[in-house]
TrEMBL record:
GO biological process, one term: regulation of DNA-templated transcription
Location(s), subcellular: Cytoplasm
Reactions the enzyme catalyzes: cytidine(967) in 16S rRNA + S-adenosyl-L-methionine = 5-methylcytidine(967) in 16S rRNA + S-adenosyl-L-homocysteine + H(+)
Name listed for the protein in its UniProt record: 16S rRNA (cytosine(967)-C(5))-methyltransferase
Amino acid sequence: MSNNPRRVALSVINDVLNNDAYANIALNEKIKSEHLTELDKKLVTQLVYGTISKKITLDWYTKPYVKKTKKWVKNLLAMTVYQIIYMDRIPTSAAVDEAVKIAKKQGDQRLSGFVNGVLRNFTRAELRSFDEISDSTEKLGIQYSMPAELTQKFVTQFGFEKTRQIFKSLEEPSRASLRVNTTLTDVETEFNKLSQEFDVEKSELSSTGIVAKTGHFADLLDFNDGLITIQDESSQLVAVALDAQPNDKILDACAAPGGKTVHIAEYLSEQGHIEALDLYDHKLRLIQQNAVRLHQAEKISLTKLDARQSFEKFGAERFDKILVDAPCSGLGLIRRKPDIKYRKETTDFVNLQKVQLEILENTCKTLVSSGTIVYSTCTIFDEENFQVIEKFLAKHPEFEQVPLTHEKADIIKNGCIMLTPDAYHTDGFFIVKLCKK
Ligand SMILES: C[S@@+](CC[C@H](N)C(=O)[O-])C[C@H]1O[C@@H](n2cnc3c(N)ncnc32)[C@H](O)[C@@H]1O
């Protein structure tokens, strides 16, 4: 018998919002372990991502009726209000009845009465208007479900209007972004093939990129055979910036799951080589899987190593090029991973910057003279981007910045690629290139 999809969704939402689980991992595990029909799997996915991404807004809607209650009850109310407001095909009465049943089963008679009362009050009243909120920054945060501290951070760096544009674009569904492995096929051939089945477009940003509004590309034969891979258009610009030459020896300091490692490898001949590092065995295995699938495994060595030990491991002047695709807050990924915005560690910019600088500091000693470092992050905040580079260059006069260029001039800021998620509907992303004199 199939399990109740709302109960399954609530347990994932509780794990993510109350116990800091990652939404994608918690959801995948639950979907695998519970008996659900294909239709229910879709419903669970929508309830989980919809409720998590709009949690602050949803709580605000029921706030007048809820003084204090348990966290899971608040999550249940939010998930139900999400269905009532955003899912036209679910009748309000069905959403409320299901919530009351869950409250009775997971709590008791009193809690189910409370849930029933709140939801009846909510459905009887007119939907609150955001115009009730007088402070414009607070209003923006509540309207787009962004925590207050983070909203303030966006407004401080980008200004009010740009922040609104970014938040608005984060509400739109993510697109699927593919990269063609040009060592095995060409963009035209893949584009024509994919066009027969999907509504695809060529990427505006990456010459080897193809984008689609929807589609399950990981099930395709060409994905399995390594002719195409899934990679955001922004990430596709990193290997291009590194400009690997066929015989280069390259250090990929923070490599897992290896999306950029395999892309760089595609530029190398048999004489070229990449040392790919990461902290965890299970993550190194992901690089290996990618490398095998894209037919690049012979050019890549995997080492479990803290990149801050690169010099001790590899010695001086060992690499022609280095990629530091640094561990970061990931705040450029909110559209695809909405739970990121609620994580405490994502706004610990001091500690993140410290680690980012330490990685650059150590790896740079392994670079040959005239060698280049590309530093990239999937975040758009200065602390993890421009400030890191300013501090690094201030301490290392032997390095200088190499300005990056792109035919879309609006993605270049101070010689770096800086993609905000609203501009081309990509992840938020940053790339800078440095050269050792
Ligand atoms: C942004 S992700 C890299 C994504 C990867 N370059 C790609 O394109 O698929 C950062 C990676 O750095 C790893 N990492 C974090 N701290 C590290 C360190 N001190 N040394 C090496 N790797 C580290 C993380 O485990 C994570 O896999």
